[in-house]
C-alpha cells in the first residue's frame, strides 16, 4: 500500500487469538468475500486488504458481532519506519494529515501497538503521548479508558499503519482487544478475569441484592466476583472452596454436583447463573438446559464453552443453536481472558 491519504479505509488490522486464526479470518471474509490477508504482523495480528470499505465491514459486524475476532482497526495510510526517534515526528505528521477524520464532539484516545521482532528507540507511551498532546492542542478531548473514537497506530518492523475510527467500530475499546486487569491481593484465581471482562463487555445487568448460582464453583474465583457485585451466591461444587469464602455470610456452599443440586432445590430461583465448568461442550450445554428452570423470569446466564482444537466453529454454532431452545443469546465472544473457549451471555426465554 502506498503512503497516501484516503477518505475511507480499504485495509484493516485484525486481531484474533492464535488458536482461532482461521475461524477469525472466516468471519471477516464472510462479510467481505474478496478481502485478502496480506501478511501477519505478529501473533494473531494480520494486515488485510478489503474489497468493501472498513465502515461497511464495521457496520455489518454491528448487526452480527463476530465471535472470534477480538479487534479490528482501519488502515487509512501506511508509512515507512526507521525505528529511531525520528519516527515520532513522522507518525505525528501523518496523523495530523488525517485528523480531519476526527469528530470534535467526540472524545478520543491514541492506541499504539508494536508488532514484529525489531526493537525501537522509543516506547509505546511516547508515541501515545506525542500524538495525544498534539490532538488535545487542536481542541479534542482525551479519554483513555472510554473513548468514543480511536487513533490506531500499529508499528511493525518496517511500516506503520495509521487509522481513525469510532471505538465501537473496533469491536473493543482496548488496543488490540487486550482487556487489561490488575491482579488483586485477595484474588483466588485467574479465572476471575474472565467473568469481570464478560460482565463489562456484555454490559450484564446485575441486581443490587440478587441471588446467583455458581456451577462448578471451586476454588471460588467466580464466586468472589459475584460477591463483589453484592450478590448472595450459591456455590455448587463437590470440591472445597478457598478458605476466604468458607465463612462468608453471602456464600452458601453445596458440596454436590450441579445436576444433584437442581433436583434437590428446584424451589430456589436465581437472578443469575454462571458456569465455568471444565466439561464437554454438549454436556455443559445440556446442563444449562436443566438449570434454566432455576432462573427467575428474565434472569441471565453466563457460561464458557470449552473448545477442542478441531471443528471450533461447528462446535460453537451447534452449542448456540441448542442453547437457543431455552435462552435468548445476547452475546457470544472469545474474550481476551478466554483460553480455547468462548463466553456466552444469555437471557431466559
TrEMBL record:
InterPro entries for this protein: RNA_MeTrfase_FtsJ_dom (IPR002877), SAM-dependent_MTases_sf (IPR029063)
User: One Pfam annotation, family name?
Assistant: FtsJ
Q: Name one GO biological process term.
A: methylation
Q: Which residues form the Ribosomal RNA methyltransferase FtsJ domain?
A: 189-310
Q: What is the lineage of its organism?
A: Bacteria, Bacillati, Bacillota, Bacilli, Bacillales
**Ion transport: present as a keyword of the record?**
no
**Taxonomic source organism:** Thermoflavimicrobium daqui
Annotated protein name in UniProt: 50S rRNA methyltransferase
**Annotated Gene Ontology MF terms?**
methyltransferase activity
Keyword check for Methyltransferase: yes
| Alphabetized UniProt keyword annotations | Methyltransferase, Transferase
